[in-house]
């Protein structure tokens, strides 16, 4: 069991994401009976149209008009998830799809999108996740979170992109570096920082402890290694190990 039965809801935020809003709004959001909620992929950056794989071939046919969602931010109603046996349904679909090595290229994202005809997804308002790769700049000001997702066109390193995309990045980066220097001091006094003591961005803390920012060139390699260990292990897990019904 991943979570105690007393816990009824969880929110996942990617480590490379900057939160600009009060997550309490997401916590209390009505998911309209769905076990979880994700944000649909943006359509507003027209330069990336050729890279929108979900509008082509298999995904276009399978989705049948439903949106393809990004997994960088999502909320799970655990009570609903357990009550509807969503984990059992996901496990069965996973077992069938995992037999094909070409399936589930992005396991955490492809599986819930593939399963949404049986396990519905509540689509969050687009403002909950802005990503430069897929979203137009005119929508950035309203973004509640900014995700530093990969750009298949430029392949720009994430830390370089962060400094360019996120205006508050210098102060956030200073906070991370201060944590790295002295992790025993959670209340920081980084230059220009006024927000951390009142409102801590959990993804920022994850970023600080998981990545060594002094060695920028190693971040991507380290991230790839973590993903390989997590998802590689999952792809080779037995049915008993991958019991999503106990989520």
Would you kindly provide a written description of the structure presented here, covering whatever features stand out?
By secondary structure, this protein is an alpha+beta fold. It has a domain of 155 residues: Alpha-Beta Complex (Spore Coat Polysaccharide Biosynthesis Protein SpsA, Chain A). 35% of the residues lie in helices and 11% in strands. The protein has 9 helices and 6 strands; from the N terminus they run ββαβαβαααββαααα. The strands form 2 sheets. The chain has a 4-stranded mixed β-sheet with strand order 1-4-3-5.
Just name the CATH architecture of the domain at 1-155: Alpha-Beta Complex
Strand order of the largest sheet: 1-4-3-5
Largest sheet: 4 strands, mixed
Secondary-structure element series: EEHEHEHHHEEHHHH
Give the beta-strand count: 6
Beta-strand percentage range: 5-15%
Which class best fits the helix and strand makeup?
Answer: alpha+beta
Low-confidence parts lasting 5 or more residues at pLDDT below 50? Answer: 186-224, 229-247
User: Which percent range fits the helix content?
Assistant: 25-40%
CATH class of the domain at 1-155: Alpha Beta
- Tell me the name of the CATH homologous superfamily of the domain at 1-155: Spore Coat Polysaccharide Biosynthesis Protein SpsA, Chain A
Shape: globular
Calculate Rg over CA atoms.
Answer: 19 Å
Please state the average pLDDT score.
79
User: Distance N terminus to C terminus?
Assistant: 6 Å
Topology of this structure?
Layout lengths: L8 E5 L3 E3 L4 H4 L8 E5 L16 H7 L5 E9 H6 L2 H12 L9 H8 L6 E3 L21 E3 L10 H8 L3 H13 L20 H9 L5 H20 L12
Parallel strand pairs: 3-5
Antiparallel strand pairs: 1-4, 2-6, 3-4
Helix pairs in contact: 7-8
């Amino acid at each position: 069991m991943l979570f105690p039965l007393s816990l009824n809801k969880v929110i996942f935020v990617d480590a490379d994401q900057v939160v600009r809003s009060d997550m309490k709004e997401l916590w209390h959001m009505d998911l309209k009976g769905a076990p979880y909620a994700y944000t649909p992929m943006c359509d507003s950056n027209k330069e990336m149209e050729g890279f929108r794989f979900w509008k082509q071939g298999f995904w276009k046919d399978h989705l049948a008009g439903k949106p393809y969602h990004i997994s960088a931010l999502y909320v799970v109603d655990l009570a609903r998830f357990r009550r509807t046996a969503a984990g059992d349904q996901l496990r069965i679909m996973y077992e069938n799809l995992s037999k094909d090595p070409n399936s589930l290229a992005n396991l955490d994202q492809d599986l819930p999108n593939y399963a949404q005809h049986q396990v519905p997804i509540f689509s969050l308002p687009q403002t909950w996740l802005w990503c430069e790769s897929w979203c137009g700049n005119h929508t950035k000001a309203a973004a509640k979170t900014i995700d530093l997702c990969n750009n298949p066109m430029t392949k720009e390193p994430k830390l370089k992109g962060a400094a360019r995309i996120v205006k508050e990045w210098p102060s956030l980066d200073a906070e991370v570096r201060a944590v790295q220097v002295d992790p025993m001091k959670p209340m920081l006094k980084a230059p220009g920082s006024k927000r951390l003591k009142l409102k801590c961005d959990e993804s920022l803390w994850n970023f600080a402890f998981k990545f060594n920012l002094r060695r920028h060139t190693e971040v991507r390699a380290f991230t790839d290694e973590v993903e390989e260990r997590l998802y590689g292990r999952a792809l080779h897990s037995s049915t008993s190990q991958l019991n999503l019904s106990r989520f």
